[in-house]
Amino acid sequence: MSASAVTEYQMVIGGQSVPASGGRTLDSVDPATGDTWARIPDATPEDVDRAVAAARSALRDPAWAGLTASARGRLLTDLAALVEEEADALARIETRDNGKLLRETSAQAHALGRWYRYFGGLADKIEGSVPPIDFPSVMNFTVREPVGVVAAIAPWNSPLLLATWKLAPALAAGNAVVAKPSEYTSASLIELAQLFERAGFPPGVLNVITGTGAGAGAALTGHPGIDHIAFTGGPESARAIGHAAADRLTPATYELGGKSANVVFEDAQLDAAEAGVLAGIFAASGQTCIAGSRLLVQRTIAEDFSARIVARTEAIRLGDPTAPDTQMGPAATAPQRERIAGAVERAVAGGATLAAGGRIPDDPALGRGLYYAPTVLTDVTPESEIAQTEVFGPVLAVIPFEDEADAVRIANATPYALAAGVWTRDVKRAHRMARALDAGTIWVNTYRAVSPLSPFGGSGLSGFGRENGMEAITAFTKTKSVWIELSEDVQDPFVLRV
């Protein structure tokens, strides 16, 4: 494809590729160059109606509803093989859409198959139970059934991975899905949907609509035909979705943001801690919910360790995200870069010291892209905005602490509770910190590791519910209790049997 070529994408509804009924499209811009490289449909509420109706129809279709759980699992396993075959192409599309390093999008794309295989294996292990009811003549058992039509809403920072965290368990449980990617990064999920068809999924089991959050997103989350909402994004959007869901009593799970603390003790292996801190905040240009955006470092080593981090930060190579020697790419969107710059400006105005970065690079080679220099702020107070609010960018706030108790107090003093890192050689301290830190994921002497086998999620402003692991299936099933009287006794019709 030439640099000037623009790819025209269509939505996937009921197994068909379709434009928006209103004919409107949205440009998808390559954040590394500023060029429009693709166009996506801007869905109308009528398009959402069609997608939900297609999913509802698939739920009743014997081609899907009549499959055994093992057969569903085999479809997911077949899909995994196709995803692995197309991983390189999917990665290139995602990098062009959101500007992440090709090394990272490639690693994620090649890992997607593990999620579909894992949940494919779980499909025929979604079991009920036989409670020992204390009525001698009654048998009671439970079954877990699909909730119905799931709205799966994925963000722009890792569209395929975070959509997969919803699609794989939802489909393993037998649901049908209407997926909506971010309007900034829709192409890779549309491409993924084509693989579902090739794997043999019946039409309507997965539908992909595209468009803005205020348009297609609001129509989807407020739709009466949706039985569960699975959302990854920011707290502001989650609140709006929560209001719409509450009006219809639609259950929802939310994987939101974080203000994660990376806690470095004086006894840590400092080379490993340094690498972990850099990975936590500058990988993916800091545009990740698990970003270790607060460096809590023990005061006895704070000056020296901070100097090491600043030196490494200033040496980070910004550039073309497809180049193998690039270490950090651009911000994904123009509004996001503005948000990052504004947060840094307010932090400095509030008394923080700019130790590195804090600017849009003046390199002419980066001029057309949405780059922002990796940034380190020192003299940050735990109560300041920069230490309390998610920036979602390459901005590290350095905060010293005295001892374990002080580290726990500072780390837990935000409204977020998604993730945290601990760096120490003391195994007892590691366990104490893992217990004391308020976060859904604790990494000890590592950072930014996820697996389909391990649950992921947070609380507070970081969301509700868990993705990945066996717990992920729970949100996508409902439990039915079945009572069977085995005797010929006739019940008193006016007395509750208790």
Task: Give an overview of the whole structure.
The chain is α/β, with parallel strands linked by helices and 498 residues long. The protein folds into 2 domains: 7-256 and 462-481, 3-Layer(aba) Sandwich (Aldehyde Dehydrogenase, Chain A, domain 1), CATH 3.40.605.10; 261-444, Aldehyde Dehydrogenase, Chain A, domain 2 (3-Layer(aba) Sandwich), CATH 3.40.309. The chain is built from 16 helices and 22 strands. The protein has helices at residues 45-60, 62-65, 69-85, 87-98, 102-122, 159-172, 187-199, 213-221, 235-248, 270-282, 299-314, 334-349, 385-388, 404-411, 427-436, 471-474; strands at 7-8, 11-13, 16-18, 25-29, 36-41, 138-146, 149-153, 176-180, 206-208, 228-232, 252-255, 261-264, 294-298, 353-356, 375-378, 395-401, 416-417, 419-423, 441-444, 459-460, 463-464, 477-485. The strands form 6 sheets. Strands 14-15-16-13-12-18-19 form a 7-stranded mixed sheet, sandwiched between helices. A 6-stranded mixed sheet has the order 9-8-7-10-11-21, with helices on both faces. Strand 4 and strand 5 form a beta hairpin. The chain is globular and about 80 Å long.
Please outline what is shown here:
This protein is α/β, with parallel strands linked by helices. It contains 16 helices and 22 strands.
What's the average pLDDT?
Answer: 97
Overall number of domains: 2
Intertermini distance: 70 Å
Class of secondary structure makeup: alpha/beta
Using the coordinates above, name the CATH class of the largest domain.
Answer: Alpha Beta
User: Low-confidence runs (pLDDT<50, min 5 residues)?
Assistant: none
Compute the CA-based radius of gyration: 24 Å
Classify the helix fraction into a percent range: 25-40%
Q: In which order are the strands of the major sheet placed?
A: 14-15-16-13-12-18-19
